[in-house]
Design brief:
Protein name: DUF4038 domain-containing protein
Pfam family, one: Collagen_bind_2
Keywords: Signal
Strand content: 15-25%
Structural class: alpha/beta
Helix content: 25-40%
Number of domains: 2
InterPro entries: Apiosidase-like_cat_dom, Collagen-bd_put, GH
Distance between the termini: 71 Å
CATH class of the largest domain: Alpha Beta
Amino acid sequence: MLKKSTILIAIACLFFAFKSNETTMPRLSISANHRYFMAGDKPFFWLGDTGWLLFSKLKREEAEQYFDTRAKQGFNVIQVMVVHSIKETNAYGDSALSNKNIAQPKTTPGNTFGKGNEYDYWDHIDWIITKAAEKGLYVALVPVWGSVVKESHIGADKAKIYAEFLAKRYRDRPNVIWMNGGDIAGSDSLKTWNAIGNTLHDQDGTHLVTYHPRGRTQSSKWFQNENWLDFNCFQSGHRTYAQDTSKKDLKYGEDNWRYVQTDYNLSPAKPTLDAEPSYEKIPYGLHDIKLPRWTAADVRRYGYWSVFAGACGYTYGDNDVMQMHKPTDKGSAYGSKGYWYNSVNDPGAKQMVYLKKLMLSHPYFDRVPDQSIIAGNNGEKYNRLIATRGKNYAFVYTCTGREININADNLEGSKLKASWFNPRNGQTTAIGTFAKAKTIKFKPPGKVSNGNDWVLIVDAI
């Protein structure tokens, strides 16, 4: 039989190993130019996934399987709802709240593993956040979904109590990001959203805070000048150009680069990103499941358009994964037919890492959007060309494979080395070296068609 001292030493070793996994992840911060993120002193390109119902739908072994897959695919942020329903329970049947009251989180004393309460709602979240850190993943926590606040009439007082609970519980976790709101206009329950934002900012102060708005809107519309908002998010949404008919929202259609352009010109400067574009395999406009569905080509287009326009990252989504659709579900939303554990390997998900690798392959913090690189017409809708540049390089994206004419006068160097980058497989193919000229023409491989997307890489010599 083991001696008591030996057992205590073993437990201590496990404890410190457990803690070290958490502390190895640097906290995220804002770069000196207020455009991008940093992890420690290194560039951090946000590559997110919407795992919205992770906490409520997945058991621990399933959560670890999901994290393993996303980490291997290059994702580094998981967006997840903490409380999605006022009656929220997790996969083990434990409730998040007492008496359906947001100001009364239902907790059990301590975190006594093996004593029957390790599957308590909040202990389960603790475990998942720790497991995410072990996999090198940050979690962007939405405290309470917007519809819950609106329908349950949650006011600023209760919201403040709840936000204090969250801040105290998770302020020591290095891999947490706060994503206030949740698919709702900031003008709905404005005092409540400010109460949550200010409380997280004041009581935590070590984690970045943002706001997730409703479709076709951006957080800067309501919170640009709030001290608690560290960076902006927008939801370009799931509608097509033809479906963009709302009288309240901006008429940007599928042009998600326009949201970036708007935020980029605001003062004070803050990073911005598309936190919810159209999901892979979700119907156009969400609700009519007979309509066509968004494809890998579409999620790539949204990614490159927004990032080249100046975004600090990009969030991908999949219809089956965002709702963690399982065989045991009684139904599904938005015509989901696949199961999350298969759909995590959908084509678009595997292709997202190429965007991150491309952006980190060249000097990062001095990168700016610059349409002056493009000679002639920038194009409209799917014919739009998007350009970005840094010191001694430039990228130009086409989602159709149309001809790209560049204005070389605005680029560094006496000669230029050009290459094609393929967003579908991440491969780079050399084109050649060129003397600088007023206009240089490049024709991408293949026929002009939606989904034949390419990035022209131009490096100064």
